[in-house]
Write a structure and sequence with these properties.
- This protein has 227 residues and is an alpha+beta fold.
- The protein has three helices and ten strands; from the N terminus they run αααββββββββββ.
- The chain has an eight-stranded antiparallel β-barrel. Strands 4-5 form a two-stranded antiparallel ribbon.
- A hairpin with a 5-residue loop joins strand 8 and strand 9.
- It starts with a helix and ends with a strand.
């Protein structure tokens, strides 16, 4: 077994074992709304976590040290809004083979955001929170070539710190640490696809490591540009 493969496997097993017991202890009746019930998609969550935490260490080492793009983003949920910005680093996740009639690429995102609540709790302002995160992202381009399509679909699951613990009129988080998983569709346009506009749906929660775990869902609009 190659050293990089052993390192990735060891990292994933360590993370899997470190949160396995808390998950089994605290995950009980699902209290998340609708289709985002983490109890019902726990298998998908672990698949996403495996993809996130076992990302090729060797590929990260080969990635350019300078970011390739930046972005600004606004979002809104049922009881909060957010504004954020961040940087994007390309990775070596470019597979020359076709998959699902398209081409897959990947990148890393580092983001920082401010969350501001839009409702009062017991007649008092609930304030807001700061959020920082790191997310590996997979992107699918239909057609299988750089020139085939400007449109894409993407998804990712990352690690986030939200401080202070987020509270609103309707929801109360219990941890600073939260996962953030998103789905998005967008289009890259302009000379060299320098500009990128996307519509995103992102869910934040702690995967029921601790209760209460109501989660927060944002619809987001992002503009990114290549340096």
């Amino acid at each position: 077994m190659q050293p990089s493969v052993r390192l990735r496997l060891t990292l994933f097993l360590f993370l899997r074992m470190s949160v396995r017991c808390p998950l089994r202890r605290f995950v009980g009746r699902c209290r998340l709304p609708g289709l985002l019930c983490l109890r019902h998609v726990s298998t998908a969550l672990w698949i996403g976590a495996a993809a996130a935490f076992t990302a090729p260490v060797q590929a990260m080492a080969l990635a350019p040290p300078r970011p390739a793009a930046g972005f600004v983003q606004v979002g809104a949920s049922e009881d909060a809004w957010s504004i954020s910005g961040g940087l994007i680093w390309p990775s070596q996740w470019n597979w020359p083979r076709r998959l699902a009639s398209g081409r897959w690429t990947g990148h890393w995102e580092a983001s920082a955001a401010a969350w501001v609540t839009t409702r009062r709790r017991h007649g008092q302002d609930t304030g807001g929170s700061a959020q920082v995160g790191l997310t590996p992202v997979l992107r699918w381009w239909p057609g299988g070539s750089d020139e085939a399509s400007c449109a894409y679909l993407e998804g990712g699951i990352g690690l986030n710190l939200i401080v202070p613990v987020f509270r609103s009129a309707e929801r109360r988080f219990s941890t600073w640490f939260n996962f953030g998983d998103h789905l998005a569709c967008g289009c890259a346009f302009g000379p060299g696809r320098q500009h990128d506009l996307s519509l995103r749906f992102e869910h934040f929660s702690n995967a029921s490591i601790r209760q209460p775990n109501p989660g927060e869902n944002f619809v987001q609009l992002r503009y990114a540009w290549r340096f």
